[in-house]
Amino acid sequence: RSPFLKINFDSVLAINDTFSITVAYHGKSVIDPSGFGGFYFEKGVAYNLGIGLSSIPHNYGRSWFPCFDNFVERSTYDFDIITKPEHVAYCTGIYLGVDTLTDNKKMYHYRMEKQIPTYLAGVTASNYKEINWDFQGMERNIPIQLLAQPQDTANVKTSFAYLPFAIEAMEYWYGPYQWSRVGYALTSNGAMEHPTNVAFNDFLGNDGNPEVTMGVMAHELAHHWWGDITTLTTAYDMWIKEGTAEYGRHLFMEYFFGKKTFIDVLKSNQLDVITTAHIRDDGYRALSGMPLDHTYGTTTYNKGAAVFHNLRTYLGDSLYRVGMQSILKKYAYSHLDADQFQAQLEESTGMDLSCFFDDWIFSPGFCAFEIDSLHTLKQNNEYLTNIYFEQKLHHAPHYYCNVPVEISFYKNDLSKIDTSVVLSGKFDSTKLSLPFKPDFWTINENEKLNCGQIGNKIFLKPNKSYTLKESKINFKTSELNQDSIFLYSEHIWGSPDTAKNDNPYINLKVSNSHFWNIAGILPENNDIKSSFFYNGSSDKELDYDLSHFSEDSIVVVYRKNSGMDWKLVENFKKQRFSPKDGKGTITITGLKAGQYA
Ligand SMILES: [Zn+2]
User: Fold this and answer.
1) 230-361 belongs to which homologous superfamily?
2) How far is the CA of 344 from the centre of ligand 1 (A)?
3) Which of 73, 138, 223, 479 has its CA 20 to 30 A from that of 596?
4) What parts of the chain have a pLDDT lower than 70?
């Protein structure tokens, strides 16, 4: 059967003519082969999900009504939903009323007065009970409506306890809420951002623990700006709505839990992106131009979120709000692509974002920065500091430009100042005036950029073990001669400098993909044990270049700074996870500030 409806008109249509067509249809609705998308009758709830994850086009209005299934065509909707007498129907839009039919069935009427694409039209029907709140929004009172089956209402109320804070956070960043209500309906699958009536996974929504619910809750709420007001022109730019929605989750975490939790969330997301996105999405991919079989992948969602955070750092908080809100205004109830996104941001903020878009939106990969050398000169009460930087790349096609990089300069007493510099190209340098001569420094410790370096700031205490996932290193202390030792350990996804020509270890091949940097004041002759992980189990892992020819010969090398050459760390202990799998740890005793590879 043809998926197309052919309509023959009596006369030829002229441009700008308006016609009204009534299409009568019936049939059985379908579910997407992936299990996500289509129309469900499950666990006492009838509902739809407007996106079919494995169908092309992904837009899945056609699973329950005839339509143009894309992101561009829009219409208003009138819903007339017939239910059993004991059921209630809820749809996207405003409730108009209910009729009782002759057989005691009910017909519920809703109207979505704003123009939306087909994938955003939604219905849910069940023996739902309503939980209704009011929330005083930025401009007006916003009704909140949660829908759950009677046995779930108590848990659902607790599960969504943080929702008002999420609305506050989103209004702060993206402007006043524009829909008639904030609504979530519990369904057996989801989640899907049908405006005013989100289909929300019951296992996430009736757990009774708001910390289980809050992430997806905030993501779907953020869609009421990104996706529901402004969407993408084609699925090749899915980052426009999924990156923003996922970053909406991060913004909520920042708003509700504060900066420290926010930084942890960013780092954990970035670690996930840089270690798994290329495996799950079958390669390092640019956000824009994503192939349709990877539309809903880790790159789109999680790297998308990471890159919106970077955009915020490039612009600063205030211009980020200005730029993003101007897109929602100009493209309200409409769609745009990556080029239009860039043009509108530039027009509204006055910033040149060509480097940002070339580096983060149109290209795959990541950048990282190290300080090659730093010289200070005391002049009156200030310290003129020359800093030479080197940029490292991880699966990126070119060096990044105009990157705002935060450097934290520390004194031994741990007082510090954070400064931002803008760096371009493989080598760059800058001159700063500092109030003191720095004893050590860190780069990007506040995760201002989600990039190819992630670190952990810690105080080592005596007789303790530390597992630092983000910087891919473990520490174990015994007795220390002081209460605690401060250090910043950092893992860098980027090629360490190669060994120099006159190096006696020239037969050593230094990894071409990653290294570690340790900053801090470490006592001489400490016996801190540090375990470095290696993984060369496949060509998608960092140490494939070293371990695929011989795991036996993997060693750890060290240098104090970029001006020195690599030296073998003697006396290490190697532990293999299992023979020949290319994975293991190398443990060294005695930790020094500097680079390890
Ligand atoms: Zn989403």
Assistant:
1) Neutral Protease Domain 2 (1.10.390.10)
2) 23
3) 479
4) 1, 501-507, 547-549
